[in-house]
Amino acid sequence: EITELTPSVQAKESNTTFDEISKVLFQNRFKDPKKQINCLGKIDKSLSKPSLELIISKIIQCIDKCRTNGFEEFIGNGVKFAFAMDDKLNMLKNWGELHDVHSLLEGPSYDVDEIYRLGTKIDKEQEQLPKNHLNIVVIRDTTLFIMFGKAIEEKISRLEEYVYRYNHLAFCIIAATYNGGIKETIKIQGEHMFLHKSSDVVDRDIIFLTNQFIKDKKITPNSTSKIRQSFVEVRNFLL
């Protein structure tokens, strides 16, 4: 069962801000192959169209100046951005620690409990699955990864309870593609796994939730490993 979680109204507003700025970053950071720009950025609120246009123009100016000066920052109107050439990476790292910014682009946040929405989606989708077979539910949900402030460990800890409810649900896989810029990451948490894979074009996040409380049916570690690997190896999955 493959499905997609439709964003809430609040999520759509935040997504517009994120998507437009993300697009500008991608287009301008790699404009000159010989002078690619490193970036850290954070958006603290959703932006109106006039504010968004102003912020985008300032981001483009900062990137252009960075190619000459090696480092540039822009802080104001609910956003924080810094740009650096490779020889100024330490300066960029220090800036990020000072301003609590740790990714290419974070935020904006909103007041919707995305995990609750996602859990409700799991509850709904499992009803369509045959009860006499083990099943896999795959949900596309970019919002969980790019718009939700809690650590990945907390997300997994809360989401696993929704999977544990159903004896016929063996795995729940939550996945997304986006422009993120974090390094490749693998985290194991009990029976679960989080994977972040980076490429030159797009980043992919996948959470593998495994139901360890299935009765009268057995999933071997080898089967679990093969299922995980099949999703990891399909590069175009969810693109």
Report on the architecture of this protein.
This protein is an alpha+beta fold and about 240 residues long. The chain folds into two domains: about 10-100, no CATH class; about 115-235, no CATH class. Helices cover about 40% and strands about 25% of the residues. It contains seven helices and nine strands, in the order E-H-E-H-E-E-H-H-E-H-H-E-E-E-E-H. It has helices at about 10-30, 50-70, 90-100, 115-125, 140-145, 150-165, 220-235; strands at about 1-5, 40-45, 70-75, 80-85, 135-140, 170-180, 185-190, 190-200, 205-210. The strands form two sheets. The protein has a six-stranded mixed beta sheet, with helices on both faces. Strands 2-4-3 form a three-stranded antiparallel beta sheet, sandwiched between helices. Helix 4 packs parallel to helix 6 (about 150-165). The model has no long low-confidence stretch (mean pLDDT about 85).
By secondary-structure content and strand pairing, the structural class works out as: alpha+beta
Q: Tell me the number of structural domains.
A: 2
Parts with pLDDT < 50 across at least 5 consecutive residues? none
SS strand fraction: 15-25%
Distance between the termini: 17 Å
Please describe the biggest sheet, giving its number of strands, its sense, and whether it closes into a barrel.
6 strands, mixed
Number of β-strand runs? 9
Number of helices: 7
Spatial strand arrangement across the major sheet: 1-5-6-9-8-7
Order of helices and strands: EHEHEEHHEHHEEEEH
Q: What fraction, in percent, of the residue positions are helical?
A: 40-55%
Mean pLDDT over the residues = 83
> What Rg, in angstroms, do the CA atoms define?
20 Å
Shape: elongated
